[in-house]
Amino acid sequence: MTPLAGYLLVAALIFSIGLAGALTRRNAILVLIGIELMLNAANLNLIAFWRYGPHPELLTGMMFAIFSIAVAAAEAAVGLGLVISIHRHAKTTDLDQMNRMKG
Amino acid sequence: MQEAISFTPQLSASLIAEILWLIPAVPIVASGLAALLKQPRRKASATLAIGSLSFSLLLSLVAFRHVVSEWANGRATREVVNFAWFQTGAVNVDLGWVLDPLSAVMLVMVSFVGLLIFIYSTGYMEHDENYTRFFCFMSLFAGAMLGVVVANSLLLLFMCWELVGLTSYLLIGFWYQKPSASAAAKKAFLTTRIGDVFFLLGIVWLFSQTGTLLFYNHGAGSLEPFALAGLLATPAALGLTAAGAIGLLIFAGAAGKSGQFPLHVWLPDAMEGPTPVSALIHAATMVAAGVYLIARVYPLMQAGALAGGTTTALTVVTWVGAFTAVFAALIAVAQNDIKRILAYSTVSQLGYMMAGLGLGGVAVGMFHLITHAFFKALLFMGAGSVIHGCHEEQDIRKMGGLKADMPLTFATYGVGMLALCGFPLLFSGFWSKDGILEAAQHWSVAKTPFYMLVFGALLTAFYMTRQVAYVFFGYWRGGKPAHESPAVMTAPLAILAFFAMALGLIGTPAWPWFRAFLDGRAASFAWRGFMEPGLLALMCASTLVVFLGLGLGWKLYGDRSPRPQEPDALERVTPLVWGWLRDKLYVDEFYGVTVIAFYEGWARVSDWLDRRVWGGVVAGVAWTFGLWAQLNRFLDNNIVDGSFDKGCDELGVGGGLLSRMQTGRVQTYLRLLALAVVLLAAILIWSSRA
Fold first, then answer.
1. What ipTM, to 2 d.p.?
2. Among A57, A96, A100, which would you mutate to test the B interface (most chain B Cβ atoms within 10 Å of its Cβ)?
C-alpha cells in the first residue's frame, strides 16, 4: 500500500500547481481552473487522511469529499457565471484590466 | 410450457466469453470517434460505423459457433463473467456479461441485420448533410443494443436500455427542423419513460429482496433457484408474490419499449425518423428489446408455476400481447402512409411475440422475434427504397404500378410481405407464427387468445395485400416517374429476402433446431414432428386464414388503382368503422382528454395558486414590510443619522488611508493571501517545535 506521505506529496504538488496557476495567469478562466485544482488537492487530502485515519470503515471522509465536490461544482458555476457577465460587460477576461474595484 | 432447463455451470469462462464485452464496446468507441469527426468527413464516419459493426458481427459469429459446438457436444453452456463495479458500505454492485444460446442468437441477429442496414444507409442517407452525425448515432445505438443483449446484470441491462432509448430519441428527431419529427421524438422518449419508471421500481425491489442484480452467478444470481425461492416466499399485495409483482413491473418496462397497448402510441409516430432508423430501431432490434428482456428474466416470470401451469405475470403478458396483436392490426388496415402501416404491423407482431412468450416459453417468442427482425427490416428497407424512388413520397395512394419501375424492390418486398403474412411452407413467418398459434391452442387458461391471434393473422394478410396492391399494382398516380434504387440499397434487400425465406427451416416441427438450441436439448430430424395431434389441422387452418386474407385484400384492392381523392374500397363498405380505424381508434385523442387534459388542468390550477394564493401572501408580506420600513425611515432620518454621520466622517478618513492597498487587481489580493498562509504555516511549524 502506498504510504500516506505519497498521497500528501501528490496533493501538495497539485495544490502548488493550482496556486501557481491562480497567481500567475491573467485569464480569469485559467485562474478558476487553478482554484479548482487547489480544491481537488484538498479533497485528495481528505480522502487520504480518512483512509489512513482511525476509522476507515465509516464513510465520513467520503461524505466530506462528496460534499466538498458538490460545493466546488456550485462554486465553479457561480465563478463561471461571474466571468461570463464580466465578459459581457467589459469584453475581456483579462484580470489585470478588471481593476475598477480599487479604492 | 417448457420445463426448467439445466445448463452446465461453467466455473472458468472460455476465451470468447472473456472478451464478449468487446462486442458492444467497439461500436460505442467507434461512435465516440465519429462524434469527433467534422461534418464533411462523411466517408470516415461511415467506415468507422460499418467497420466496428463488422468486427462485432465477426466476434458474435465466433461466440455463436462456440455455443453451438458446445451444445452439439451435449453441454448446454451458460458462461458468465462478473466483476465488482463499486462497493459502498456493505452494498456490493456487480456487473457482468453472459454467453448462452439466447444471447448468442440475439447477438448474431442484431449485428447482422444492423450491418446490412448500415450498408443500406450509405445509399439512403447519401444526400443528407448530417451524414456523419447519423452514423455516430447509429453505431452508438448498435453498441448499446448489443450491450442489452450481453448484459448479465439487470443494472447493466438497464443502462444500455436507457442508452438505446436515448439514441432512439436522437434518431427519431434526426431531422429536428421538422416540428413533427421533434414532437415525435419527445413523445417516444416520454412514453417509454413511463414504462421505464416501473422497470426501475422492479429493479430496486429485486435488489432489495435478493441483494444482487446479476442474473446468473454460480447459484447466487437473482434468476437462480435460491433467490427465486426467496422471492416466492415473500408476499406482495393483491395475492401476488414478490416474484410475480417484480415480473409485472419489469413487463411494464418491456411494454413501453416494445410498444404494447396502452404504451404503443409512440411507435407509429417514430416513423418521422429516417427509414433505415425505422428499419433498425423501430422494427428489428430496439422494439424487440422488450421481448428479449422478458425472455431473459423468464425464470422470474415463470417462478411458482406448477407443471404445465402458468403464472399471473405470464397470463398478463399473454393477454396484453394478444390484445395488442389484434388492436394494432385493425388500425393498420386503414392507414395510408406506407411506413405507418408497417409501424402498426410491427406493434401487432410484437404483440405476437409477447403472446408467444406468455403461451409457449422463450423459444416460441424468440423464434418469432428473429424471423420478424429479418422480414420486417426487409419490409422497412423496401419501403425506404420505394420512398427514395418516388421522390420522398410516403402516401400509398399516390404510388402505384411500381412493379415495372422497381422490379428488384418489388420482388424482395413481395418476399417480406408473404413472410409477414405467414404464407405457408416457404416463408419463415409461417413457421414462427404457427409455433405461437400452436402454443395458444394448448393454453390451459383460456382459448380466447388463440382466436384473437388467428383473427390477427387474417388482418395481417389483408392489410399487407392492400398495401402491396396500392404500391406495386395498378398504374402510376404520382408526379415524376419513379426509379429503381442503387445497388448498395437493393443488395441488402436481396440478402434479407433470402433469410426471410430460409430462416423458417430451423424452426419447422420436423426439425425444431432453434427451440432445442435455446432449451439446451438435442435436436433431431423427424418427419413425425408433423404428426402431433392437431398440428396438421392447425397448419391447414392457418393456411386457409392466410389465403382468405390475401383473397379478400386482392378482391377489394387488386389492380384497381383508385385515385387519391376516391374513397377507399373498404370505406365504401363500412364508412363508420373505417373512420374509427383511420383515426387509430382514438387512443391519442383519449390520452389528449385524459392524461394531457389532466396535466393541463393541473398546470392551470398551479398557475392560479401561484398568482392568487402564494402571490397574494407574498404581496401581503411585502406590504407589511413596506409599512415597517416607512416607520424605520422616519426613525433613521431624524434620530440615528446625526450621530452616524459623524462616525462616518471619521471612518472615511481612515478608509482613505487603507484604500491605497486596494489596487483592484484580484491577483494582488491572492498573492497577499498566499503570503499570509505561508507565514501562518511557518509560525505553526515553528511553534510546534518549541
1. 0.71
2. A96
Residues of A in contact with B664 (CB under 8 A): 98-103
pTM above 0.95, yes or no: no
Report d(CA B317, CA B265) in Å as an integer.
18
Chain A residues contacting B, CB < 8 Å? Answer: 19, 22-24, 31, 59, 62, 95-96, 98-103
Cis before B449 (ω within 30):
no
Rounded to a whole number, what is the distance in Å from the CA of A74 to chain B's nearest CA? 21
Mean pLDDT score, B104-115:
92
Structural domains of chain A sorted by starting position, each given as residue range(s) with its CATH number in brackets: 3-97 (1.10.287.3510)
Residue-level pLDDT at B601? 92
> Which of A23, A101, A103 is opposite residue B667, by nearest beta carbon?
A23
Which of B38-52, B139-153, B306-320, B345-359 has the least mean pLDDT? Answer: B306-320
Residue-level pLDDT at B1? 35
Q: How far is CA B676 from CA A95, B118, B476, B670, B682, in A?
A: 22, 64, 87, 10, 10
Q: Which residue of B has its CA nearest to A63?
A: B88
A103 with B674: Cβ contact below 8 A: no
Closest residue in chain A to residue B666, using alpha carbons only: A95
- Residue B168 CA to residue B187 CA, distance in Å, equals 11
Share of chain B above pLDDT 90, in %: 26
SS (H, E, C) B242-268: HHHHHHHHHHHHHHHHCCCCCCCCHHH
